[in-house]
Amino acid sequence: MNRSITIIGAGPVGIIFALLNKSLNDKISLLESNSEDQVKDDKRALALSNGSKFILEKINVWNDLYTKLTPINTIHTSQKGTFGRTLMKAEEFEEESLGFIVSYGDLITSLNKKLSNSKNIEVFYNAEALSFENKDQKQTLIYKQNSEKKIIDCDLLVLADGGRSKIKGINIKRTDKYFAHSALVCSIETDIPHSYVAYERFTSMGPMALLPNLNGKYSLVWTGPKDDINSLIDLDDSKFLIALQDHFGERVGNFKSCKKRITFPLKQSFISEYPNKNIAIIGNSAQVMHPVAGQGLNTGIRDAFILADCIESKDIDFDIKSMINKFKDRRKKETKNILKLTESIVTIFSNDFVGVNKFRGIALSFLDLIPPIKKRFVKKMSYGK
After folding, report:
1. Rg of the Cα atoms in the chain
2. In terms of residue numbers, what domain contains 141?
3. What DSSP string describes 193-251?
4. C-alpha distances in angstroms, 180 versus 174, 207, 224, 262, 288?
5. Based on the domain organization, do 119 and 194 belong to the same domain?
6. In degrees to the nearest 10, what's the CA dihedral of 183, 300, 154, 322?
7. DSSP assignment letter at 80
8. In the 8-state DSSP scheme, what is residue 168?
9. I need a labelling partner for 203 at 20 to 30 A (CA). Which of 124, 179, 189, 310 fits?
10. How many angstroms separate the CA atoms of 90 and 200, rounded?
């Protein structure tokens, strides 16, 4: 069946969805507002779960990506000021690793390499979506590429651009919750190279994570109240490293150096009312969550996988609206649960009331003694179920 599918956003989620569509009869167009070089040079660290590994294997990207990955073999979770801690090791759960770290640019490069062999998929860079019309059972998207306005017809429009686009004719109602917190991210070098261990550390300021990266270095994600994070940005490198050492401790030795620090605001967002058109929404366009458990990208990749599966299952008698409804039904429960879980972790471990610290420390130690609970948690984080 010949279909025209247009995807707004040629990031990981958009490209993975395109590659998952098996029908060579479909014409698939990816519109990306950034230039190709901007996308490839992005050094942000991303966490990939074992569930995402399974999906990347299905589209034959994993083998090319493997040499650019850093596996996480152990996750060490602790809280500042208490003795409690939990260790999760891959061998406990009969997994090769608990997850993997990769740069955004490396992931995109491997995905684009696979795209170049796909005859029915075309990518348009520097392409900004402007407006969308639905007339006489025909959908038309108007976009601007290098200052020139262009038109593309599509049977299905997929939004996968992280919610950045403001497209005339598409009204999406969202429920937003602002945490009044920000995240600080940067690359960190310590005097003891990592041993493929990821650290999650809860402090009174907020959660922080050290993720193992290439060349023995770490990627730092430090979240907390906006004013506190801004004050960390204002410090010179030496004073910042002292502050980091004070909050994190000496589990990885001394912090030697850091790369450029950047911040971004944190919020939780999900769609409360879908547009009544032939539009599917995936990835951060559909939901945004706190980075505490590294679930944002992985949830988006599962969105792409389920949407492609819904399209394939409707291939014989393809009705777009019923397919979209099926997709929404299949994703609703998991997305809601992941949003609740990440919000609960932040609330519980950022609460600084008297006595709560001690309880959390005991809870972490208790979790370490109950393998079934740990196994359930790891399965949820890895596969979303």
Report:
1. 22
2. 4-43+104-175+269-345
3. ---SEEEEEE-SS-EEEEEE-GGG-EEEEEEEEHHHHHHHHHS-HHHHHHHHHHHH-ST
4. 18, 14, 8, 17, 15
5. no
6. -130
7. T
8. B
9. 189
10. 16
| 11, part of any domain | yes
The secondary structure of 29-42 as a DSSP string is EEE-SS-HHHHHT-
Q: Rounded CA gap, 342 and 291, in Å?
A: 8
Would 364 be classed as within a structural domain? yes
Answer whether residue 33 shows pLDDT above 80.
yes
Number of domains in the chain: 2
Residues 67-109: tens digit of each pLDDT: 999 999 999 988 876 666 788 899 988 888 999 999 999 999 9
Give the sign of the dihedral formed by CA 157, CA 163, CA 169, CA 173.
positive
Residues 28 and 108 in one domain: yes
pTM to 2 decimals? 0.90
Q: Look up tokens 């660290």; give the residue.
A: 45
In tens, the pLDDT along 340-365 reads 878 777 766 665 554 455 555 555 55
State whether 87 and 202 are in the same domain.
Answer: yes
Is residue 322 located within the same domain as residue 194? no
DSSP secondary structure, 294-353, as one string: S-HHHHHHHHHHHHHHHHHHTSTT--HHHHHHHHHHHHHHHHHHHHHHHHHHHHHHH---
Tokens of 283: 């990835």
Please give the single-letter amino acid code of residue 287: Q
What SS3 state is found at 1? coil
Same domain flag for 275 and 221: no
- The tokens for 216 are 């023995």
Judgement on whether residues 77 and 94 belong to the same structural domain of the protein: yes
**CATH number of the domain residue 114 falls in:** 3.50.50.60
**Matching residue, tokens 């032939």:** 278
**Does residue 227 fall inside a structural domain?**
yes
Q: Tell me: do 279 and 309 sit in the same domain.
A: yes
**249 and 226 assigned to the same domain:** yes
Q: How many CB atoms lie within 10 A of CB 36?
A: 14
Return the closest-CA partner of residue 170 out of 216, 210, 197, 130: 130
Tokens of 138: 């025909």
